[in-house]
Structures are given as C-alpha cells and as structure tokens.
Amino acid sequence: MKTLDFYFDFSSPYSYLAATQLPALAARAGATVHYRPVVLFAVFKAAGNDMPAKVPTKGAYMLKDLERWARHYGVPFRFSSHFPSNTLKAMRLVHVAADQGKAEAFTQAAFRAMWAEDRDLARPDTLADLARGVGLDPEAALAAIETQPIKDRLRADTDAAVTRGMFGAPAIYVGDELFWGNDRLHFVEEALKG
C-alpha cells in the first residue's frame, strides 16, 4: 500500500486546507495517510524560519489567500480568533487517537474546530468534546496526553520532520520527496500514482 506522511500543526491554516483534501486524494491514489503532528515552532527554529503572519505584508496577503483557497476547495474557513494558539495538547491527542485507529477522525475534527468553528484547542473542555465526538473516552484521552510516552511520540515526530528537511507546514512526504504547502497536492497525487 502506498503511503504519504502528512506533517502538520493545528495552528497552521494551510495545514487545515491540505487536511480537507487528503482523504479524497489518498482514496484516488490508493494510498494511506499517516498523520504526523509536529511542534511547528520547533521546526521553524531548527530551519531558521518564522511564521508568515509575523511579516505584516505577508500576513495581509495570507488572509485573502486562505479565503481564496477555502472557496476553491469548497470548505468552510474562518480565521481563528485564538491564533496563534497553543496546540501542543491537541497534537498529543492525535497520538492517543492513533492508538485506537482514530487519527484521521480526530485530526479532521480538530482542524475543523480551529479553522471553521473558531474553537480554542488549548481548552481542555474543547479537547474532551472533540475526543468524545470521535469515540474516545475523554477522561482517559486527556490523562494520556500528559504521559511521557505520548509526549515523546510528539517530540519524535517533530525531530523526524526536522531531520527530513521540513521547514514549514504542511509538509507532505511521498517516500523521501517533500511537497510543501496545500498548493502542491496535485504533485503529491502524481507522485503517489507514479
């Protein structure tokens, strides 16, 4: 089975846009998506990069561009009033969900919560609600994200992304080939089908 590694941080609106398209893309290509949450701040630091929103002209452009892409994809989008957000615990929760075969469901729900519903992923009640919504026990899930093994898995994904050359999000790998940004998805599909 062909696979793609999707490295993301919930704080990245372009990662949200890519995430809305990946399930259908993977189905067309006969591939599996591996959801790999990372701490984007750590990736930026390792790569000597920074978020586009910190540059005023890029930030202004980005808002229009995100709305344009959301219209193009036909998906809801609302710039988060919680941006930049501390998404660390939400990203750990992806690993908890993955252990129960629910990584995709949780990832999609969390992205929707932040970038379509303007919910705060730093709030425990939001995380509990999202966990419950995908069939996880919310109390057990929130306890698990505080355990060292789950923290270590998020760190390992972040370190792997840096080692592989990730410098921003989303970063999608097909084999060793990097495709950066939601606007490179047609190249991802070509690589999977080739």
From TrEMBL:
Superkingdom: Bacteria
Record GO terms (molecular function): 2-hydroxychromene-2-carboxylate isomerase activity; glutathione peroxidase activity; glutathione transferase activity
Any Pfam family: DSBA
UniProt enzyme class: isomerase
PANTHER family xref list: GLUTATHIONE S-TRANSFERASE KAPPA, GLUTATHIONE S-TRANSFERASE KAPPA 1
Family affiliation: Belongs to the GST superfamily. NadH family.
Descriptive protein name: 2-hydroxychromene-2-carboxylate isomerase
Provenance organism: Polyangium spumosum
